[in-house]
């Protein structure tokens, strides 16, 4: 029974991190086994770590070496940056073995092989390589033919642009100021649609409605500006906005350095926000900006009229547009991750 429990426990062991506190492990084992006659400690190792100091150990220690020493070659660093001539790429390769290494390195841009070259690395040494790749590649992968016992570190992938491209659909009759800001945003593809002919497009990342509200929320990001009364966003009329804007705790992270004070907002709707919408900024006790999620839609509401608004002539306007659009989209993946670093991914369910 004891052997069965031990084998079950070993099967569930998962190796994490890169450090090993052998001394601490022996101390714990000794503490647990001192009152058991005939007990001994068995240390299973691949021989990579030096033998522990057993001078103070009061129990017999049996060291079992498993496997044999294998050389390892690895991609230590891979970084990419987009420039005027294309994608600038930097890589650092290391040879941790005791013998010289010579082998091929392959570069793939968006899963297409673009370059192959042979490299030589001295024992226990590293080399640095640079390339300039033409074209608009989004993802670069480096494959290093290490031919060793640790193949996982022979390959590395890096995203060239941390910010993902956005397809934005603007549903409005007139919105020249907003169009200019959206067209100035890098990686944004803008489509303008008349409200009378609008139909949901599943390929759109963010849909912006001005002076209109859809019959149902489209999937993805949604920004509604100056919404009229509707089933989705009911209101009880309009009132003159107060010039003082108060940020709520939910709006601090998105708007804390966007200056919204001293703006004549004009008439704003007296919105009755549903439970899933949270105010970000208030004019008096009336929501001016709100944010929430409904089923598969990330939704933001700007409760003011952009037409002839002083806001469009201030620096706060492009800042507010860019931050709102990016906030409505899933966050981009980091350009690269070190092996073992946790990554939190929000699924669109």
Largest sheet data: 8 strands, mixed
Query: Which class of secondary structure composition applies to the elements?
Result: mainly beta
Alpha-carbon distance between the two ends: 44 Å
Extract low-pLDDT stretches. Answer: none
Total count of strands: 19
Q: How many structural domains?
A: 3
The proportion of residues in beta strands is: 35-45%
- Binned, the helix content reads 10-25%
Q: Give the C-alpha Rg.
A: 30 Å
Protein name: VWA domain-containing protein
Can you give a write-up of this model?
This is VWA domain-containing protein. The structure is a single chain. The chain is 13% helix and 37% strand. It has 349 residues and is mainly β. It folds into 3 domains: 22-67, no CATH class; 73-159, Immunoglobulins (Immunoglobulin-like, Sandwich); 166-327, Rossmann fold (3-Layer(aba) Sandwich). The strands form 5 sheets. It has an 8-stranded mixed beta sheet with strand order 11-10-12-13-19-18-17-15, with helices on one face.
């Amino acid at each position: 029974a004891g052997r069965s429990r031990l084998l079950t426990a070993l099967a569930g062991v998962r190796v994490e991190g890169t450090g090993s506190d052998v001394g601490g492990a022996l101390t714990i084992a000794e503490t647990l086994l001192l009152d058991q006659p005939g007990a001994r400690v068995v240390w299973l190792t691949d021989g990579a770590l030096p033998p522990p100091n057993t001078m103070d150990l009061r129990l017999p220690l049996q060291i079992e070496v498993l496997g044999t020493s294998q050389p390892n070659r690895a991609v230590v660093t891979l970084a990419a940056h987009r420039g005027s001539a294309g994608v600038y790429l930097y890589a650092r390769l290391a040879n941790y073995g005791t013998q010289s290494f010579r082998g091929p390195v392959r570069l793939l841009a968006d899963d297409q092989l673009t370059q192959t070259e042979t490299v030589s690395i001295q024992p226990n040494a590293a080399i640095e390589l640079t390339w300039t790749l033409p074209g608009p590649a989004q993802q670069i992968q480096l494959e290093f033919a290490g031919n060793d016992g640790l193949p996982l570190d022979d390959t590395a992938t890096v995203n060239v642009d941390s910010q993902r491209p956005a397809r934005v659909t603007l549903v409005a009759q007139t919105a020249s100021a907003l169009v200019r800001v959206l067209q100035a945003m890098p990686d944004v593809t803008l489509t303008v649609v008349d409200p009378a002919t609008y139909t949901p497009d599943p390929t759109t990342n963010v849909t912006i409605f001005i002076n209109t509200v859809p019959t149902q929320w489209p999937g993805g990001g949604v920004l509604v500006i100056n919404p009229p009364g509707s089933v989705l966003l009911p209101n009880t009329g309009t009132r003159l906005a107060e010039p003082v804007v108060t940020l709520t705790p939910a709006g601090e992270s998105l708007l804390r350095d966007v200056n919204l004070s001293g703006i004549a907002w004009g008439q704003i709707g007296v919105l009755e926000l549903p439970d899933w919408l949270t105010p970000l900024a208030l004019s008096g006790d009336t929501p001016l900006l709100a944010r929430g999620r409904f089923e598969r839609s990330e939704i933001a509401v700007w409760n003011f009229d952009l037409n002839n608004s002083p806001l469009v002539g201030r620096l706060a306007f492009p800042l507010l547009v860019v931050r709102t659009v990016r906030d409505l989209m899933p966050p981009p993946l980091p350009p690269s991750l070190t092996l073992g670093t946790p990554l939190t991914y929000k699924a669109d369910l």
